[in-house]
Queue: 2 jobs
Job 1
Amino acid sequence: MQKIPRPTRRHLLAAGAAAALTIGASALLPVATAMAAPGCAVTYTTNSWPGGFTANITVKNLGDAVNGWTLGFSFPDAGQRVGQGWSATYQQSGQAVTAQSLSWNGALATGASTTIGFNGTWTGSNPAPTSFTLNGTACTGSTTPTTPPPTGQTPVAVNGQLRVCGVNLCNQYGRPIQLRGMSTHGLQWFARCYNDASLDALATDWRADLLRISMYVQEGGYETNPAAFTDRVNTLVDEAGERGMYALIDFHTLTPGDPMYNLERAKTFFAAVSARNANRNNVIYEITNEPNGVSWQTIKNYAEQVIPVIRVNDPDAIVVVGTRAWSSLGVSEGGNSTEVVDNPVNAGNIMYAFHFYAASHKDSYRAEVERAAARLPLFVTEFGTVTYTGGGAVDAASSTAWLNLLDRLKISYANWTYSDADEGSAAFRPGTCAGSTYAGTGVLTESGVLMRERIRTPDTFPTG
Ligand code: IDC
């Protein structure tokens, strides 16, 4: 077999590849790069049903910056047709299709990506196109970062793309499931707790299904450096995906309690993360953590402005909407779930958040959850075993009553927090994240021991 030299930096530059490519990144390129510039990388994914499909296409520019682009590809089957599209102007002639950029997404810097899509129809079969061009140059690169598709029996491998069915969270087989996992603490404070060893422990020792990525917006969070926090979230989505866990992207609004205060930030953030993660099947979007001091109508208005921003890029992902009074379905401000049942968010494939802290919220809250769960798809995106301050002693009896209820109703949950914060709700003892050991019970607090025990019991994910 002919030996093909590993591409050198000079080869890459001579071939017109991105100057921004580092030596490290060059290892990700196909060996053929030595001869031809990759130009671009494309991922094309579809959701298909008899006669119809939705396609999402992520285009990554690996060549020089462009200002205006045309993506070209051919359908393998003569019966495949482009219908209504978004984020590009589509034309089809025979089996050849072009998608032309719009004014707002025409500029693509080296290394930048954009996501477009369309609804299509098919008659014979619906295979994905096998080659693409960007402004005439063949797209032979690979989209990076690439997360190898999870294999084996991980939660994402078994359940695939989730969707809401009735009041349940359902897997790719349309069967109700419960996801059990942990929430990060604020990324601005506890980034050191989310590393390979801690995430390995979460996936394999805790056998968690879910990582909630808690990105505060205020308190030194997103608003102080949107690009860096967006990157950090995307990296954690990849880390969760590599381990076969779902990632719940939490836009952690808290103070002020009016989500409208962060509406523009939310639109910017969710446009970015939904475009970046459109082709992944492990992402769930939580658009506001704990609205408080505002009406349900205000939260609903916020949701109806943010959800379309996500859906344009990632039409099939589940979105979770926070509820009134710190996501208590209104209860902590004297209301109840009827306000949501009577006036639901005008969007499909959504769930409503419920939060509790076991030492503070007991029977009356449990009764309301049981009542609401018959009518609304609920997701406990955050809860603690302690008081609502995040501190104090573990209330084991109330925590167990809650967890039994959630298990019985198949309500998914994430526990606050997978961190070594010096407070009762944290799973790790203070100082743990300065070390390298996360598995086992030696590093855990009382809350951590209780939660690990519950989360690591075997899942029952139906596959038929
Ligand atoms: C708490 C943290 C604590 C931090 C505080 C303020 O545990 O270290 O100082 O936030 O940012 C929530 C919130 C969550 C709170 C948690 C405990 O979603 O941000 O975390 N809690 O108070 N709702 C109810 C309780």
Job 2
Amino acid sequence: MTSAFTAEIERETHDLYDRVRHVIPDVEWSVHAPLISAINQLKRERKALILVHNYMTPEIFHGVADYSGDSLGLAQFGARTEGDVIVMCGVHFMAETAKILSPEKTVLLPDLQAGCSLAASITGADVRALRARHPGLPVVTYVNTSAEVKAESDICCTSANAVQVVESLGVDKVIFIPDQFLGQYVASQTKVELVMWEGACEVHERFSGAELREFRSMHPGIHVMAHPECPDDVLQEADYVGSTSAMIDHVGKVHPKQVAMITECSMAGNVAVEFPDIEFIQPCNLCPHMKRITLPRILAALETLSPAIDVPADIAQRARLSLERMLAVGRSAARD
Ligand code: 13P
Ligand code: SF4
């Protein structure tokens, strides 16, 4: 059971709260602080590392993370990390990726229902059918997919390195799955021809170019950044396109007065803690899958060492090859 917001916990979390107070109200902190304290204590006892995606809420992102980043950063960190247990604060495909890259570790996902509309859009059988329709073409697969789909692929990519991965193959044409919008973005940045799939992120597909134009007219001079899972008319309106971590780096470099991050809502709160002088303005959309991960569920996962991710050995072995080929390629720059 979690303790109450005692004077001792208030003292222990005082400096942390000082950093995050402008994105987390007082009344919420009294609920979060005892959970943060209990999680940080238990993770030391369990020799666990907490990996946190940029879309987690600020109390998770700033309160309990040992590492935070985008999908590529999480995969890279998961591949090289020490420790017995990884708690993935993200969605199912991220936990599966960590398990595939660190099979000897216990990988926990605090809510197994934290899925992804892209991962749900395609199966291993679909990939085999695509290969039969386009014989000889290599399959480049966005990491937002199941282990089974990765196992049927030649190489994975993330939003941070998709162009570089596609070009690394040295061919004129590839199968690119499953995000049609990331695919359209990659196609606009390379001469390689892409055969695409009709998957989409249920969060990013909801933005529109018209919405952004109207938004710009209300906030003249605002710096607009967008994730490449957004439709093309949104990306056309953006000043910068990049992965979640690329957007964070870009804010640090450009330091605009006002920023809109056209992506999941928690990003802006997490970044605002580092840049209190920058004004972060909506629009944003919530990812219902990411929001399944909460402090109480993280604590329960550490207490029970469950739910743990398991990937059948034959699938894991083939999926690992696709991931390792990607990790050998690395990270590319985003578009200004
Ligand atoms: P990033 O790899 O850019 O963090 O994106 C992951 C994701 O799920 C975006 O919706
Ligand atoms: Fe999947 Fe979109 Fe949620 Fe990312 S934001 S996990 S791509 S549904």
